[in-house]
């Protein structure tokens, strides 16, 4: 029963937008969280605060990075490792070439 009440509280008929109540709806989203906009008894879109959207997108990106890391770890073979010196030589770099890059963050 609680999930039905929650669903009712978190849905907004699109007709409220047509009646000029968008500001009130947006304020409710900021205070209470996401709302599902219904049009002809079908979910049309979901309204989120910008902060919630950023949080969700960060979580999605973190999950993608975690999946990439897990895939790489599954294929990890220590025999394929390259030493720092070998890498620098292969790339044609010297320590002087890297001077000043201490503050650069690489993901």
TrEMBL record:
InterPro entries: YefM-like_sf (IPR036165). SUPFAM superfamilies: YefM-like. Belongs to the phD/YefM antitoxin family. This is Type II toxin-antitoxin system Phd/YefM family antitoxin.
């Amino acid at each position: 029963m609680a999930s039905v009440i929650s669903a009712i509280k978190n849905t907004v008929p699109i007709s409220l937008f047509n009646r000029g109540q968008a500001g009130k709806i947006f304020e409710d989203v900021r205070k209470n969280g996401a709302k599902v906009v219904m049009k002809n008894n079908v979910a049309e879109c979901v309204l989120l605060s910008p902060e919630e959207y950023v949080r969700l997108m960060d979580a999605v990106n973190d999950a993608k990075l975690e999946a990439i890391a897990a895939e790489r770890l599954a294929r990890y073979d220590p025999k394929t490792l390259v030493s720092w010196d070998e890498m620098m030589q292969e790339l044609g770099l010297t320590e002087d070439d890297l001077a000043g890059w201490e503050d650069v963050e690489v993901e």
